[in-house]
Amino acid sequence: MKKILIKNGYVIDPGSERKGCYDILIEGEKVERIEEEITCGKNADIIDAEGKIVVPGFIDLQVNPGNTIEYICEMLPSCGITTPLIMPCNVNGIPFLDYYGGLRGVIDASDGQRVNVANAISIEPPDTGAHETYMQLATPVNSIKSRIEEFIELGITAVGEVVLPLGGTAHITTSMSEEFLDKLLNETERHDIPILLHTGLGLQGIEKAVEVSSGRKMHICHVGSTCSQDNIHKALVLLSENGNITSDTHLSEVAGSNSRNSKLVVEYFDKGQAVHIDAQTLKVEKVEDINKARPPFYYNKVNLFENNIICALSEQVDAIESDDLGDGIRSKILLKNLFKLVNSVALEHVKHELMYKMIKKLTINPAKILKINRGTLGEGAFADAVILDLHNERVETVMVNGKIVLFNGKLTGEKGGKRIRFKS
Q1: Which CATH class is domain 58-343?
Q2: Are the CB atoms for 56 and 80 separated by under 8 Å?
């Protein structure tokens, strides 16, 4: 079996508490050895990473397949993402389950891609309205238990993104958020399956979610965006006081949706602030006719970017995710802002410390939240590796399960991805 040796790189791997110059020897799907210097002779293909940073592949806790699962999986390696948690949304304007012909179709589409795919499927209250995909995922209260058991049998990685207007506007409408969340948490706790929650806008939504959780495990999505018009510091204090709750943040200046019927999209369109963004140039163009325009739709919120930066730097927020809408735009923005943030630091050792903190939130922390065996480059770990050119602010090489899927910034013919099952 051919081996690959990554030499001379500066390794940042919070999962194995490693930071420094190391060589990494990969055989098959896994890391065989990691040492300060490895000599392999002619038995390995050598990748010279001198002057580059080598990190575990990013695990993105929220990616939406707006242009299909297959499409977004082709886009993600150039952003360093090797394992997206793909959540339900409208796909090419069609509700998620309709597009793929049900959960089995989703699962079939998730295997053998260029990146690993972890699946999250939401469970929503039976009176859910205002969003086509989430209305399809509405579940009677007495069927929550059997629905979760179905997910586990199919290997669905997590329950989510559960969207509930706790305390404010969300992408859906429902009158039974608190009651439903309480019953849902009983079942996710019993099965020890991760649950990811999108609360209604504002600090009140996070406060209500924490209150309903009553010590049960739960993950709250994109805290910085949720609290964009409230006191983010109060939210961070609340999270620090409740060890059962994990959380994440965007690292982006835009929020968005794949549904023109989303209450948030309609709200920002009425303000004249809903826009399209070009996937290649990131050029912004105002949406003129919401009924004729094709999703996704993007918009900004007051204090959105400021809050996301605060959360990305805060010890109280566990992970950074893109919430990509399936066109690769917010994954690119995440990477761009990550590079800009780190490169704003002058002192080299401080730059590496900041990079360590950011990489931890993109690798081992989300792996622990999802309870999956990824997010590190320790010996015996799956070889999901990314070589970053920090100076030129780009992803140079990406490996997924030991296969090189991106080299010198360009996709190869390899597809190394696997479907990541619950507790895999």
Answers
A1: alpha beta
A2: no
Count of alpha carbons within 13 angstroms of residue 417, beta-carbon side: 33
Taking a C-beta distance cutoff of 8 angstroms, is the pair 4, 402 a contact? yes
pLDDT at 229: 86
Q: b/e map of 240-254 (b: 16 or more CB within 10 Å)?
A: eebeebbbbbbbbbb
Quote helix, strand, coil % in the chain, to nearest 5.
Answer: 35, 25, 40
d(CA 136, CA 152): 19
CB 151 within 8 A of CB 423: no
- Provide the 8-state DSSP code for 296: P
Instruction: Say which DSSP state 57 is in.
Output: P
288 in helix, strand or coil? Answer: coil
The span from the CA of 343 to the CA of 261, in Å, is: 39
Amino acid at 57: G
- Of 226, 236, 148, 152, the C-alpha closest to 185 is 148
How is residue 138 written in tokens?
A: 């509405």
Comparing C-alpha atoms, which of 180, 221, 181, 175 is closest to residue 197?
221
With both helix axes pointing from N to C terminus, report the angle between 232-240 and 203-213 in degrees, rounded to the nearest 10. Answer: 10
Cα Rg for the chain, rounded, in angstroms? 21
User: Is 359:54 a contact under the CB 8 Å cutoff?
Assistant: no
The β-bridge partners of 196 are: 219
Cis peptide before 295 (omega within 30 of 0): no
The burial class, CB within 10 Å (0-12 / 13-18 / 19+), for 145 is middle
Residues 75-118 pLDDT 10s: 999 999 999 999 999 999 899 999 999 999 999 999 999 999 99
pLDDT tens track for 25-49: 999 999 999 999 998 877 889 999 9
- Write down the H helix ranges in 283-347: 304-313, 329-343
> What's this model's pTM, rounded to 2 decimal places?
0.96
Predicted pLDDT of residue 1: 72
Q: Where are the domains of the chain?
A: 1-56+375-413, 58-343
Instruction: Specify the pLDDT at position 165.
Output: 94
Which 3 state secondary structure label does DSSP give 94?
Answer: strand
Residue with tokens 């794949």: 258
1-56+375-413, CATH topology level: Urease, subunit C; domain 1 (2.30.40)
